């Protein structure tokens, strides 16, 4: 690209200093062309896991801010040469770490429009379409997932914010304590509060307990069964024990699709316990919930109609770019009572009624991006059938890999595979020393990740180092899974030969 002089730039900028419309059009087209090429070639043109070393990007950038305007050509050149090497490609078909995600075409275009409009949907009047589209889109998603009406939904940045909001509402729902008003510290009339989740729940629940002021001791972790599902009998026993010891139980967080293994807690039994002890039930379906879009998978949400709140992240497995986390509740009045606070400068006629929500009333964030736009575009572009087909395919690929693993003498499955996550480890015949198996699996994972075609992450199950193959990107094909499996087998065979030779 040709460098432009400062004078050229001055001629092109408007009186405001912003980019002239024609330049915006030109660079916009150039960037969209770049994006189209990037998305088409991401699997072949880049290592999935960035190979940069810590501090490398930082040191390649100037320490001081630019004093004079710079040409877009120079900015884009640095984007390419300095920043791109520091990108780990979540868009790659070989990205199978954590939980796979996808910035799909319609989702990315929706995000671009969101950015261009740059509205803040804090109040209905600050962009009626943003508030109303959010309500409509989330009702569509509710229907797609087979959840009963009515269910109020709002979009937050992350599930971590959502679980915190749910627990603030749960705390506010405790009769007579008025914690929002009076706080908790120094009060003799507030017993120590306790909430419950399984030992396999996401760490966002622990963080919520910290922020909420109940402390990490205020979160009791319940054991799981052989399939990593919360033990509802142990839950009830823990609640009884805590009540006898003077604690005040107030909420349970159950999970549909845990992070380590994608296990599904027994929601109907947990809901029974919550109803018996009048506890708020929050269901974390951040990853797994999306699968209910496939009617054949609806069973995973059995009992969720009894939950007080539920989260599903379209930015995980519904092909919507980060960030987009849907928070549903059957008790919007309680959430609103916990959060609504209207200073004079935000007061307006619409603040007075409940018919039209002001989205700022359902969480601690005032500003809200127009996130429903990208979700709406994804839902319309794919349709329920299109979304369900992709999810079904991911689940099918996972089943296939799990089957190969089960058949192999050198590998073993470490957890059931209800969704598209396969937990496995290399366990060659005759090698039973746990330390040796751990070293072998760690070694295989780091070798695979170093090549650049695939990126895997791990967890620990019953103390055993376990590889996670998380399938969730639109671009991942059967060929990718076959190649990964071939790669794993070859590496294990080579390791076994080395051990035998030594
Ligand atoms: N819950 C589960 C089950 C998760 O797997 C994750 C992240 O992977 C989260 C919550 C946190 O999601 P977020 O990044 O949206 O806060």
List keywords for this structure.
12% strand, 502 residues, 44% helix, alpha/beta, seven-stranded mixed β-sheet, four-stranded antiparallel β-sheet, globular
Could you explain how this protein is built, in words?
There is one protein chain. The termini are far apart. Strand 4, helix 11 and strand 5 form a beta-alpha-beta unit. 44% of the residues lie in helices and 12% in strands. Strands 1-7-6-5-4-2-3 form a seven-stranded mixed β-sheet, with helices on both faces. It has a four-stranded antiparallel β-sheet with strand order 8-9-11-10. Helix 5 runs antiparallel to helix 14 (372-407). It is globular, with a radius of gyration of 25 Å. The protein is of the alpha/beta class and 502 residues long. It has helices at residues 6-12, 21-45, 56-60, 72-83, 105-117, 128-144, 159-172, 179-182, 203-212, 232-244, 267-277, 314-317, 332-339, 372-407, 434-451, 478-501, and strands at 152-156, 193-198, 219-222, 248-255, 280-284, 309-312, 325-329, 411-413, 421-426, 457-461, 464-470. Bound molecules: pyridoxal-5'-phosphate (PLP). Pyridoxal-5'-phosphate (PLP) binds at residues 98-99, 158-160, 202, 204, 255, 257-259, 284, 286-287, 313, 325.
Explain the layout of strands and helices:
Layout lengths: L5 H7 L8 H25 L10 H5 L11 H12 L21 H13 L10 H17 L7 E5 L2 H14 L6 H4 L10 E6 L4 H10 L6 E4 L9 H13 L3 E8 L11 H11 L2 E5 L24 E4 L1 H4 L7 E5 L2 H8 L32 H36 L3 E3 L7 E6 L7 H18 L5 E5 L2 E7 L7 H24 L1
Parallel strand pairs: 2-3, 2-4, 4-5, 5-6
Antiparallel strand pairs: 1-7, 6-7, 8-9, 9-11, 10-11
Helix pairs in contact: 5-14, 6-14, 7-9, 7-13, 10-11
The structure holds pyridoxal-5'-phosphate.
């Amino acid at each position: 690209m040709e460098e432009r002089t400062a004078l050229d730039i001055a001629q092109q900028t408007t009186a405001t200093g912003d980019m002239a419309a024609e330049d915006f059009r030109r660079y916009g087209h150039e960037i969209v062309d770049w994006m189209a090429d990037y998305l088409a070639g991401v699997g072949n043109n880049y290592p999935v896991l960035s190979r940069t070393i810590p501090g490398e990007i930082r040191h390649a950038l100037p320490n001081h801010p630019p004093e004079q305007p710079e040409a877009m050509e120079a900015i884009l050149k640095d984007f390419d040469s300095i920043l791109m090497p520091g990108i780990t490609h979540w868009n790659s078909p070989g990205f199978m770490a954590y939980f796979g995600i996808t910035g799909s075409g319609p989702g990315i275009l929706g995000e671009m429009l969101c950015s261009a409009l740059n509205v803040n949907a804090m109040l209905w009047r600050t962009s009626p379409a943003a508030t109303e589209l959010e309500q409509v889109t989330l009702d569509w998603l509710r229907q797609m997932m087979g959840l009963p009406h009515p269910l109020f939904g709002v979009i937050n940045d992350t599930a971590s914010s959502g679980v915190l909001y749910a627990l603030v509402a749960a705390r506010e729902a405790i009769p007579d304590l008025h914690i929002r008003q009076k706080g908790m510290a120094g009060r003799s009339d507030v017993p120590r509060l306790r909430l419950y989740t399984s030992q396999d729940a996401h760490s966002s629940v622990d963080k919520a307990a910290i922020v909420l002021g109940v402390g990490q001791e205020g979160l009791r972790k319940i054991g799981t069964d052989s399939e990593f599902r919360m033990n509802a009998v142990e839950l009830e026993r823990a609640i009884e024990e805590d009540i006898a010891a003077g604690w005040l139980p107030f909420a349970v967080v159950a999970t549909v699709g845990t992070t380590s293994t994608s296990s599904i807690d027994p929601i109907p039994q947990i809901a029974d316990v919550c109803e018996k002890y009048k506890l708020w039930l929050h269901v974390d379906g951040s990853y797994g919930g999306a699968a209910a879009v496939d009617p054949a998978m609806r069973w995973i949400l059995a009992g969720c109609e009894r939950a007080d709140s539920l989260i599903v992240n379209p930015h995980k497995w519904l092909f919507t770019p980060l960030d987009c986390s849907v928070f549903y509740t059957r008790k919007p009045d309680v959430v609103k009572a916990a959060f609504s606070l209207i200073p004079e400068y935000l007061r307006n006629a619409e603040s007075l009624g409940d018919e039209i929500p002001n989205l700022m009333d359902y969480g601690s964030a005032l500003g809200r991006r127009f996130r429903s736009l990208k979700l709406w575009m994804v839902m319309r572009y794919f349709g329920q059938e299109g979304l369900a087909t992709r999810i079904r395919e991911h689940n099918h690929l996972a089943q296939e890999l799990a089957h190969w693993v089960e058949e192999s003498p050198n590998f073993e499955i470490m957890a059931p595979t209800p969704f598209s996550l396969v937990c496995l480890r290399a366990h060659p015949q005759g090698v039973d020393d746990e330390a040796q198996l751990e070293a072998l699996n760690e070694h295989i994972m780091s070798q695979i990740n170093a090549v650049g075609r695939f990126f895997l992450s791990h967890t620990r199950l019953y103390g055993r180092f376990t590889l996670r193959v998380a399938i969730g990107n639109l671009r991942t094909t059967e060929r990718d899974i076959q190649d990964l499996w071939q790669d794993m087998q070859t590496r294990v065979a080579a390791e076994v030969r080395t051990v035998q030779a030594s």
